[in-house]
Amino acid sequence: MDERNRTPRESRDRQGNGVGRFFRSLLGSRFGILWIIVGLILFYNLYAVFRPGQSGPQPEVAYSSFIEAVQRGLISSVTISGNTVDGQFTQPLRVANGYVYFPDEPVPDTVDPVQVRSVTRFRTVIPDNAQVEVADLLRQHGALVQVRSSGGISFSSLLVSVLPFVFLIGLLFLLGRNLSRGQQNVFSFGRSRARVYDVERPQVTFADVAGEEEAKAELAQVVDFLKNPAKYHRIGARLPRGVLLVGPPGTGKTLLARAVAGEAGVPFFSVSASEFVEMFVGVGASRVRDLFERAKAQAPAIVFIDELDAVGRQRFAGLGVGNDEREQTLNQLLVEMDGFEAHTDVVVIAATNRPDVLDPALLRPGRFDRQVMVGLPDKRGRAAILRIHTRGIPIAPDVDLDGLAAATPGFSGADLANLVNEAALVAARRGKQVVDQSDFEEALDKVLLGTTRSLLMSEEERRLVAYHEAGHAVVAYFTPGSDPLRKISIVPRGRALGVTVQAPEEDRFNYTRSQLLGRLAVLLGGRAAEQLVFHEVSTGAQNDLKEATQLARRMVGLWGMSEELGPVYLGLGEQHVFLGREIVQDHSIGTSTLDRADQAVRRLLDEAMERAERVLREHRAELDRLAELLIAEETVGPEKIREVLGEQPVAATEER
Questions:
Q1: What is the CA radius of gyration of the chain?
Q2: Hey, which residues are catalytic here?
Q3: Are 138 and 72 in contact (CB under 8 A)?
Q4: Can you tell me the distance from the alpha carbon of 627 to that of 656, in angstroms, rounded to the nearest whole number?
Q5: Class of domain 459-645
Q6: CATH T-level topology, domain 195-373
Q7: Which pLDDT score, from 0 to 100, does residue 600 have?
Q8: 60 has which bridge partners?
Q9: pLDDT, tens digit, for every residue of 174-185?
Q10: Of these four, 205, 241, 338, 513, which has the most CB atoms within 10 Å of its CB?
Q11: How far apart are CA 18 and CA 8, in angstroms?
Q12: Mapping DSSP to helix (H, G, I), strand (E, B) and coil, where does residue 87 land?
């Protein structure tokens, strides 16, 4: 069961009371009972000194003052033990330097007021062999007399005085034994920090994972093996020792691993690869050994290593030297994965979003035998994910989850969860009891475009921004194959002064050359509108130029879409993880070829700019009407866009 669907009672049962957790962890520790006994002895000591009725240590009273207090009848009870008398006055009396000042006596000015105490209990020492006379005098004046033997040692005094030292010496002895061990020490640096999820607690299952049906089908075989290992052992089959989950961040790799453990009902050890590596040499390898020893002791089990690339990067990547500690940790991981016995039912599941940087030794058969792709969900998967994340949220009947799924291409599961949470926050801020469609739309704008900024732009700046965004919109509207327009706004959001949002009707996984050329024209439509209307350009096209240039470089260097070079892969536009690789990469490409590639990129951008200007000149009236509407209303939806721009051309000749 998902964390969001737990009732408050289940959450309390899962977490437990803070005091209860403390005592359970104390009793479970190696010296828990010892610490409890020492604490009880210290508590008894404090109670013996500061027991009820005492404000602190009893003040010493001179014998003469004691006798005078007895004769005045101001003592209620005493306890005589040898020459020591512990007693109690019938009323609080002032005592300073052993002298008792009775109620009818003032305290002299020569006595320091700080030394004067008002007490009800006292202690005094009487002369030898005077116990009988003192006891008779006390009885004559109505005091209660108790006599206690002063010889021998009681069990309680022995417990208070001797046993604490015995326990402390024993504690130091045990700690000293731990310090003498080679690979284990007091600080447990070599112990694995993996978190173990109990199989008896509610677990995540495949029902809590949506949008990854292919990955779930692939992992279902692992679940079946962990549930019925004997069926596979009889025929001599061996479970894949490692399953590598590969996909962009936020696609649910960790959730899938937990779902496998929940479906199989086996212990689940979760650890991040970065927790293996420390500043001390050998600690990472020791933690790897400890993790696999714990997992094999509870087999069948699952070991999940998140962000595997933190420790599994290639042991040499370009220039410079490697990290010895990280490489030792990687070597130990390789040994542990390859050192399983034939029928050790332990599966290692790892997750990474950079499989290209992993060491080849990790990916060979016998270690990570399978690679499961966990990609971004499609439209149907996004709708299913939205339904999962809105289970515990009251949503209005007008909320169209399928429409939201269509409007969020490229969103991962984490992005969709954030979208639902942002919509709930918007509804709560507005004081609503349910989340409606307008809350989701505002949350989507915030996620895609950023938070609205209150900038005081002049009329000239607003007009420039309006024509810039209208230029994007007009070129997109009248360019065949472009995505439909969802919104145009000149309200500043994030770092942008205005936005033009396009929402594809269907997910696209492959693009043609004409579609990419149309995309280049749309990106340069804002700059073309500025030149056409104001005969000037501004800095507002910085991001447009960056995206257009990167797209043109990929078209030329990766996809072979230029006429100058043809179907040649040059590797231009790729982003290298390691600087060393980029420096020492293959230099078989000549400088003349690179010059021709640069000329091809420039030609694509120039042609896209000319195409955008041609479309805007042909539809100058629509451009002006849309810009004026933006100046007046600031934000325009799809209905008004169609009303201003008219009918969109259904068939047109695509430029190639």
A1: 41
A2: 469
A3: no
A4: 30
A5: mainly alpha
A6: Rossmann fold (3.40.50)
A7: 92
A8: 123
A9: 665 555 444 444
A10: 241
A11: 16
A12: strand
Q: Decide: pTM greater than 0.90.
A: no
Strand locations in 30-156 (E): 75-81, 84-96, 99-101, 117-125, 144-147
Is residue 240 within 8 Å of 347, Cβ to Cβ?
yes
Tokens of 203: 């677990």
The alpha helices in 430-541, defined as continuous H runs, are: 437-449, 459-477, 513-523, 525-534
- Structure tokens, 468: 């810039």
Options 3.40.50.300, 3.40.910.10, 3.40.1190.20, 1.10.8.60; which CATH number does 379-449 get? 1.10.8.60
Residue boundaries of the structural domains of the chain: 63-148, 195-373, 379-449, 459-645
Record the tokens describing residue 65, joined without a space: 């003052």
Tokens of 274: 């970065």
Q: Which of 441, 403, 395, 398 is nearest to 422 (CA)?
A: 441
Q: Which of 605, 643, 604, 619 is nearest to 475 (CA)?
A: 619
User: Residue 163 pLDDT > 70, yes or no?
Assistant: no
Instruction: Give 572: exposed, middle or buried? Use CB within 10 Å, 0-12, 13-18, 19+.
Output: middle
Q: What is the mean pLDDT of residues 108-120?
A: 83
- pLDDT over 70 for what percent of the chain? 76
Average pLDDT value for residue range 316-329: 61
CATH fold match for the domains 195-373 and 379-449? no
Centroid of chain to Cα 418: 14
pLDDT in tens, 551-587: 999 999 888 898 888 888 887 766 544 444 444 444 5
The DSSP 8-state label assigned to residue 541 in this structure reads: G
Q: How far apart are CA 492 and CA 641, in angstroms?
A: 20
Class of domain 63-148: alpha beta
Take residue 361 and report the two structure tokens written for it: 């030794």
